[in-house]
Design a protein that fits this description.
The chain has five helices and two strands. The chain is mainly alpha-helical. The relative contact order is 0.07. The protein folds into two domains: about 35 residues, no CATH class; about 60 residues, no CATH class. It is elongated and about 55 Å long. The termini are far apart. α4 runs antiparallel to α5.
Length: about 100
């Protein structure tokens, strides 16, 4: 059952990407659909990182000892200041590791 699900998901992903990326097909998205889809990346990213940062052991963890929050805050500040993926990853990881060792 798992292999069938993975195969179907791969087929759906390939088909949707092929339809919109193949230049010879007459299928085009309108400006309203393009604007609507521009919100999908931030929405997916938020759905991924919020549980990682704030939920531990099935409970909300917003304490000052949460290393994930400090790493996330450092990454956001680095991204805002440097506009570099490498510095963002570096600062976020360093803050995570340093705050995880604090008492």
């Amino acid at each position: 059952m798992t292999l069938i699900t993975i195969g179907l998901l791969a087929l759906i992903t390939f088909t949707t990407r092929y339809l919109f990326l193949e230049g010879k097909l007459p299928l085009r998205l309108g400006p309203n659909v393009k604007q609507f889809l521009s919100f999908s990346a931030p929405a997916v990213l938020t759905a991924i990182f919020v549980p990682i940062l704030f939920v531990h052991e099935q409970q909300l963890d917003i304490s000052s000892t949460n290393a994930y929050i400090w790493g996330g805050l450092a990454a956001v500040m680095a991204a805002y200041k440097t506009h570099s993926v490498y510095w963002t990853i570096g600062f976020g990881t360093a803050a995570f590791l340093l705050s995880g060792n604090l008492p």
